[in-house]
Automatic annotation (TrEMBL):
Transmembrane segments: none annotated. The keyword Methyltransferase does not apply. Residues 1-19 form the signal peptide. Keywords: Hydrolase, Signal. InterPro entries: Aspartic_peptidase_AS (IPR001969), Clan_AA_Asp_peptidase_C (IPR011969), Peptidase_A2_cat (IPR001995), Peptidase_aspartic_dom_sf (IPR021109), Retropepsin-like_bacterial (IPR034122). SUPFAM superfamilies: Acid proteases. It comes from Aquincola tertiaricarbonis. Residues 116-194 form the Peptidase A2 domain. This is Retroviral-like aspartic protease family protein.
Length: 213
C-alpha cells in the first residue's frame, strides 16, 4: 500500500484541471455553444472540451455537458452551476476517526453514492481505487484520460477520473480527482484530493477532519 501511495504522488500534476463554475450564454444552432467556464467565455463545438467540461449536445432547451463523468443540462440565463471544487458541502461540522489495528484510520463512506471502505493515506496525492472496486460501484473510468505509473512489476496503465462526490461521515466533497489502478487493493485510499479540503488534527489515536474556513 505504501508503494502505491508513493507512486500516486507524481500523478497529481498530470490530472486534468476541472472547472469550478459553468454557465450557458448562447448557442449556434446544434453544433456549438457559448459557455462561461470559471468566468471566461469559451465557444465549444459538440464533442470538444475545456477545463474538464465537455459539450455533448445543444438543443432548444439548453446544452448538455459532461463533467467528471456526470452529465448536466445548462439553460440560457440560468445561474452558473457550481461544480464544488472549492470546498465541501457538509451536514456535520467535523469528522472524527479512531485508529484501528496497525494504527490505520479506516472509515466507511461513499463514492458517487455507493458504499466503499476508505483508508486514510496522507501520502497519496489523490483518492485511489482498484479497477475491481471501480467496476463494483459502477464508475465509468475507462473513458477517462490514461496515464502510466511504474511498479515493481513494470509500467502499469492507470485511468484518471474526477469523482462526482466523496462522502465520509456527514462530510461530502464534490469533484474529487482520483485514479483507478489495475492492482488489487483491499481499501480505497483516501488521499489528499479529499483530505486537503479539511484541517487535519491528530491526537494519539484520534483524527479530526474540520472544514477549512
Amino acid at each position: 500500500m505504501h508503494r502505491i501511495a508513493w507512486l500516486l504522488a507524481g500523478l497529481a500534476a498530470a490530472l486534468p484541471a476541472v472547472a469550478q463554475q459553468v454557465s450557458l450564454n448562447g448557442s449556434m444552432g446544434e453544433r456549438a455553444a457559448l459557455l462561461v467556464i470559471d468566468g471566461q467565455p469559451r465557444t465549444l463545438t459538440v464533442g470538444s472540451s475545456h477545463g474538464g467540461v465537455k459539450l455533448l449536445s445543444v438543443a432548444a432547451d439548453g446544452a448538455r455537458v459532461e463533467v467528471g463523468g456526470s452529465q448536466l443540462l445548462l439553460r440560457i440565463g440560468a445561474a452558473p452551476v457550481n461544480l464544488g471544487g472549492a470546498g465541501a458541502a457538509r451536514t456535520d461540522s467535523e469528522v472524527v476517526l479512531t485508529a484501528g489495528p496497525g494504527g490505520h484510520f479506516m472509515s466507511g463512506g461513499q463514492i458517487n453514492g455507493k458504499t466503499v471502505q476508505f483508508m486514510v493515506d496522507t501520502g497519496a496525492s489523490v483518492v485511489a481505487l482498484s479497477q475491481a472496486e471501480a467496476d463494483r460501484i459502477g464508475l465509468d473510468y475507462k473513458r477517462g484520460p490514461r496515464g502510466m505509473t511504474q511498479t515493481a512489476n513494470g509500467p502499469v496503465p492507470v485511468h484518471q477520473v474526477v469523482l462526482t462526490s466523496v462522502r465520509v461521515g456527514g462530510a461530502e466533497v464534490y469533484q474529487v480527482p482520483a485514479v483507478v489502478l489495475p492492482e488489487q487493493m483491499p481499501f480505497v485510499l483516501l488521499g489528499n484530493s479529499f483530505l486537503s479540503r479539511f484541517q487535519m488534527k491528530q491526537v494519539n489515536d484520534t483524527l479530526r477532519l474540520e472544514k477549512k474556513p
